[in-house]
Amino acid sequence: MSSDLQAELEKEPPYAAELFGNQIDLARAFTQRLAQDSETFGLLGPRELSKIWSRHVINSGLLAELIKPGSQVADVGSGAGLPGIPMAIAQPAAHFTLIEPMERRANWLKAVVQDLKIQNIEVVRARAEEVKKNDFDYATARAVASLDKLLKLMTPLIREAPNGTIIAMKGSKAEQEIEEAAKILSKFGYSQPEVLILGSGKAPETATVVRTFLK
């Protein structure tokens, strides 16, 4: 990595080692790779490098606390591997399937997983609706679509799992998106969604997620 790029990167926050534990070296390697390839593959905006740990890697890794060991997770529209790769690093006892339709990005994800030897990740180049597996325990997404559209994309992936759960990273309009998705939530048979704020008092930036499960 060039010295110029290195200078732009956010220094690793102390909380990273707590979050990723004995996998911290893997988190560091992914962060370096994400920064190195970001411009070439259009993964993050150039101004995001100064917040790469806080806003992207740690922020995504926070979701791992919601994932039970032994479970199977579908990360929809994985793109830059967010939140899927940091989650998989922080929760090595679960298995993650990264679903990405764009060939260029899917190939990048496959190369990262192979090069870093991340054992609990599989990459599938496909649209969410093309994936045949329907018993993932969780489906996750970050910056893919509004909640009502996400539910249509993700419900088939968890339909056959007991209490299949949606975990969607959202921002300040999370409550509004829940209201706008009320009809879809009722139609598909979801529980009342909850808005969770992860990392309060610990992480450099908190993560806001909407979580709901099929009843």
UniProtKB/TrEMBL annotation:
It holds the Pfam family GidB. The keyword Magnesium does not apply. One of its GO terms (cellular component) is cytosol. SUPFAM superfamilies: S-adenosyl-L-methionine-dependent methyltransferases. Keywords: Cytoplasm, rRNA processing, Transferase. GO terms for molecular function: rRNA (guanine-N7-)-methyltransferase activity. InterPro entries: rRNA_ssu_MeTfrase_G, SAM-dependent_MTases_sf. PANTHER family: S-ADENOSYL-L-METHIONINE-DEPENDENT METHYLTRANSFERASES SUPERFAMILY PROTEIN (PTHR31760). This is Unannotated protein. It comes from freshwater metagenome.
